[in-house]
């Protein structure tokens, strides 16, 4: 990495000491458009570079021993962007689940998609279902892709699903409701990482973020490397998590 980034520790890590490895790292993918502007490139090139970075970060995250990773790739608010930009983003999503699906298969990565299906093109929905099916037995790590996702909507959808399932809403508990979240087998997020310089969580994983550690990076998402992943884990291992105790 070039210099120290916000949220990182300068303390040296003894590589012989066991590290506290997070079970779930959630990445807020941010800075693609600013990266493109900085390099004098069209916006799409920033999104393409960010798309490629997801694959690299996922491999590095799972290689480090983290069993779950989530990435915020398209929010419910992102539909407000220009028709051209949204169209190209949908093209990248389709590419991920068709031409590049073999990357997840070859690397033994299980894919789960978290988000609303409402308003999503039927072809994309079919490819999502196919990708989840063909990777369901993979064991190197689970990649949760937050697509057409909003944290508040996830909770609202969970409440509706619980009511539809006949749950007694007058006595519902958090442990009951979590079974109705998107991809309920995805555990709480131990550490949320946001690239791009902003310091907010932007409606990401609101339920699973109740006790998340937060790491904010100045570098744009396309600049993320495996060294960044290692530094994030080092930083996390030095945090004291008390869960309100």
From TrEMBL:
Pfam families: Prenyltransf. Substrate binds at residues 31-35, 47, 75-77, 79, 81, 194, 200-202. It is an enzyme of class 2 (transferase). GO terms for molecular function: ditrans,polycis-polyprenyl diphosphate synthase [(2E,6E)-farnesyl diphosphate specific] activity; magnesium ion binding. Its EC number is 2.5.1.-. It comes from the Bacteria. One of its GO terms (biological process) is polyprenol biosynthetic process. Its cofactor is Mg(2+). Keywords: Magnesium, Metal-binding, Transferase. The active site is at residues 30, 78. Mg(2+) binds at residues 30, 213. Binds 2 magnesium ions per subunit. Belongs to the UPP synthase family. Catalyzes the condensation of isopentenyl diphosphate (IPP) with allylic pyrophosphates generating different type of terpenoids. Homodimer. This is Isoprenyl transferase. It comes from Candidatus Mycosynbacter amalyticus. The lineage of its organism: Bacteria, Candidatus Saccharimonadota, Candidatus Saccharimonadota incertae sedis, Candidatus Mycosynbacter.
């Amino acid at each position: 990495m070039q210099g120290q980034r916000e949220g990182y520790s300068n303390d040296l890590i003894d590589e012989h000491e066991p590290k506290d490895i997070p079970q779930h790292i959630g990445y807020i993918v941010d800075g693609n458009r600013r990266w493109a502007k900085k390099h004098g490139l069209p916006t799409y090139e920033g999104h393409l570079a960010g798309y490629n970075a997801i694959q690299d970060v996922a491999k590095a995250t799972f290689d480090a021993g983290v069993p779950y990773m989530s990435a915020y790739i398209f929010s419910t608010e992102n539909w407000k962007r220009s028709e051209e930009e949204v169209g190209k983003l949908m093209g990248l999503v389709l590419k991920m689940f068709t031409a590049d699906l073999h990357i997840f298969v070859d690397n033994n990565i299980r894919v789960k998609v978290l988000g609303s299906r409402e308003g999503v093109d039927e072809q994309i929905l079919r490819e999502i279902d196919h990708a989840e099916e063909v990777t369901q037995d993979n064991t190197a790590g689970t990649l949760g892709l937050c697509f057409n996702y909003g944290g508040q909507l996830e909770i609202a959808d969970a409440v509706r699903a619980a009511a539809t399932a006949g749950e007694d809403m007058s006595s519902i508990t958090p442990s009951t409701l979590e079974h109705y979240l998107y991809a309920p087998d995805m555990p709480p997020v131990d550490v949320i990482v946001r690239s791009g310089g902003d310091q907010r969580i932007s409606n990401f994983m609101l339920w699973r973020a109740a006790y998340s550690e937060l790491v904010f990076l100045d570098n744009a998402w396309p600049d993320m490397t495996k060294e960044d992943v290692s530094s994030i884990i080092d930083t996390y291992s030095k945090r004291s998590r008390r869960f309100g105790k």
